[in-house]
Amino acid sequence: MAGIFYGVGVGPGDPELLTLKAVEVIRNADVVIAPKTEKKEGSTALSIAHPYLKTDVEILRLVFPMVNDAATLANAWENNKNSILAELQAGKKVVFLTLGDPMFYSTYMYVYRLLKDSGYAIETIPGVPAFCAIGSQLGQPLAEGNDILSIIPATMSEEELDAILGVVDNVVLMKVYKNFGQVIAKLKEHGFGENSVMISRCGLPDEQISYNLDEVDPTSVNYLSTILAKKRKLG
Q: pTM for this one?
């Protein structure tokens, strides 16, 4: 039997937000891949999927290092690719778990590119992105009418942030943990400061909601933090 590779989005944190298809695929998996960085012991994606794992499923924890050294990265990616191919060659159903949606700022996208020409079937199962779950939880529309919504990685340059914040009505800011202070200053500068909220670890037991971002300690911002902001309406 030929192996098949699945990329499964497990959503932001609540196991009940997985789609029916995602649950079915996870329940039938022979191998579940839990990606991690070299600094993290556990896997948030694996803990979210845990209620749906069969007891005898094989858990494969692959390290995807977050470093700038090209040789280290190339070696790690090649080793991970070979590990996945070995499972597929054995005819197994291999599920790669990823937070949120597989095609939205995820490691899965790069794994997909490595495997798409391998000759094995690949199926990608979408998941709920964190910012969609946050908007629903807070009762805050992400965009309405003719609003412009921009999804911004907060790691971009100040010049790029200025250009985008100057023309949009609603923003979703991802990866805010790296330069939180700069992000807050820019939101205030462009009229978003009065209507901004940050949720950290949305849907998980230790979720935190911050309505006053001035009171947030920049050194304590979690990796899984997202800011939703609306521009102040004048007149």
A: 0.88
Rg of the chain on CA atoms, in Å: 19
Specify whether 143 is located in the same domain as 121.
no
**What percent helix, strand, coil does the chain show, rounded to 5?**
35, 25, 40
Same-domain status, 75 and 135: no
Query: Which residue bears the tokens 């990329």?
Result: 7
The secondary structure of 197-225, three-state, reads: EEEECCCCCCCEEECCHHHCCHHHCCCCE
Residue 90, domain member (yes or no): yes
Which residue segment(s) compose the domain that 43 sits in? Answer: 4-125
Q: CA 10, CA 15: separation in Å to the nearest integer?
A: 7
Q: Which of 91, 125, 159 is the last residue of a domain?
A: 125
Tell me the pLDDT tens digit for each residue of 168-190. 989 999 989 888 988 999 999 99
Question: How far from each other are the two terminal CA atoms of the chain, in whole angstroms?
Answer: 66
Q: Which two tokens stand for residue 89?
A: 């060659």
235 domain-assigned: no
Distance separating alpha carbons of residues 34 and 40, to the nearest angstrom: 11
181-230: pLDDT as tens digits: 889 999 999 998 888 999 999 988 999 999 999 899 988 899 889 999 99
Specify the pairing of strand 196-200 against strand 208-210. antiparallel
The CA-atom distances, in angstroms, between 87 and each of 5, 104, 216 are: 9, 25, 45
